[in-house]
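Today's session is about reading a structure prediction critically. Students often jump straight to the picture, but the first step is always the sequence itself: look for stretches that repeat, for charged clusters, for runs of hydrophobic residues. Only then move on to the predicted structure, which in these notes is written as discrete structure tokens rather than atom positions. Here is the chain we will use throughout the hour.
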Amino acid sequence: MPRQAALALLVLIVLACGGGEDTETSIPRGPGAGSAAAAVEELHGLLVDGDFAGASSLAMPGQAVLASLAEGASAGEVADALQQGDEAIAANFWSGFAQGFGEVLSGEVTVEEIGPRDQSGVEFYLVSFTPGSGQTQRLVTQDVDGHRLDLFASFGAGLADRLISPVEILVESPTGDNGVVLRALKGVVPSLLLAASDESLGPEAVQNVLKLVEIITRVG
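Below is the predicted structure for this chain, in token form.
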């Protein structure tokens, strides 16, 4: 399977499994990891152990709830979570990830740091993640009170296609809750641009990511 197709499948499975009720109503967000590789290794261990509340600290704040737009979350729901904290939603995201890829996660993995990458003035850290029985995936962190997985930089190719339609709806009326969500989405534009720079992606996947960026940035 081409890598971009694997990424899209990964995210679709995550979204399908991760929806529904929060695993907890309130989860404190802990510090991130000491390095990009450590973030991936810690996340892997937490997912294997089923500690999704702990794993929630290893996602960039606010990104899991923005990703939930792809599974039908309303602007009001997303706006509320952006203001109140999306730790429980992040826990659901990783729960879905583990359900979809349990066999891969339970085996041996190889984690190697690729190094930092600047995109639109934001510093990202790239990591290669290779399960014993699967393809190498490029994962990306940011250092925000410790390293945390950037969901849009890591999985943007899989998210973009399903986000285009709901974001277009937000742009049609960019006020109130819609405006809150659009402002948050503008914050992940550098992440999406980094995702689009992945040379292993095919033209259609890159085009979808860049189209999503264009829609997000229509409103000044």
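Discussion point for the tutorial: The chain is about 55% helix and 15% strand.
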